[in-house]
Amino acid sequence: MFVQRPFAAALRASARSAARQTRPSYAVNCHRGFVSSRNFLDAEKGSGKETAAEEAKEAVEEELSPIEKDLKELKGKLEKKEKELVEMKDLYVRSIADFRNLQETTKREIQKAKDFALQKFAKDLIESIDNFGHALSAVKEDSVKANDEIKQLYDGVKLTRDVFEKTLTRHGMKKIDPMDEEFDPNKHEATFQAPNEEKEPGTVFFVQQPGYELNGRVLRAAKVGIVKAKD
Predict the structure, then answer these.
(1) Residues 159, 79: one domain?
(2) Which of 80, 175, 180, 204 is disulfide-compatible with 224, CB 3.0–4.6 A?
(3) What residues contact 200, with CB distance under 8 A and at least 6 apart?
(4) Among residues 152, 171, 190, which one ends one of the domains?
(5) What is the DSSP annotation of 29-91?
(6) Which terms are listed as keywords in the entry (predicted)?
(7) What is the CATH number of the domain that holds 196?
(8) What is the pLDDT of residues 75-129, one digit of tens each?
(9) Structural domain for 201, as ranges
(10) Separation of alpha carbons 81 and 178, rounded Å
């Protein structure tokens, strides 16, 4: 009996140790099973809500009369057409704006082409106008008064030059004759400077060759002499 008691105690201690080792594993497994069951129930519950909502919707649609169904269908089509109409209006407005911009751009390009063509033609005519001026300045005033034939020739050349200049003026060409004006480097070309007590420094007192501009653009700057500033 003395030997059996310690042995029995050892058996009981071993059994308690084995029970303690198996308890956590059993608890974990039970918890996992509980979580899985809960997730499954939640999923079933959500699926049930969606199914119920769909069934309710179908039930409402089934309860609609044929006329109400037609009205609902027509309402949907009307909303779709209204949306398409808004998109078409926006596209129409954009198309009009693009077309007007194209018109303005084309108009400007055509005008530039016309101005360039006339500008090239006008430059060629400037030399002819200069030649008329040289011919008139070559005739002395005494010769004009003394000889009727020379006077008629002089008047004819002068009249031709005037008509020439008027024709060019009607097409936007303007003569630059800056006598007694302030020197402008954009329109004038200074060929020399000289002192002049009667005029302010920087003033044009002599026009060697007149200039011309076409529609506000300088074709040829006027060659001038300007008053020199005092030292």
Answers:
(1) yes
(2) 204
(3) 227
(4) 171
(5) HHHHHHHHHHHHHHHHHHHHHHHHHHHHHHHHHHHS-HHHHHHHHHHHHHHHHHHHHHHHHHH
(6) Chaperone, Mitochondrion, Transit peptide
(7) 2.30.22.10
(8) 888 888 899 999 999 999 999 999 999 999 999 998 888 777 778 888 888 888 8
(9) 174-231
(10) 70
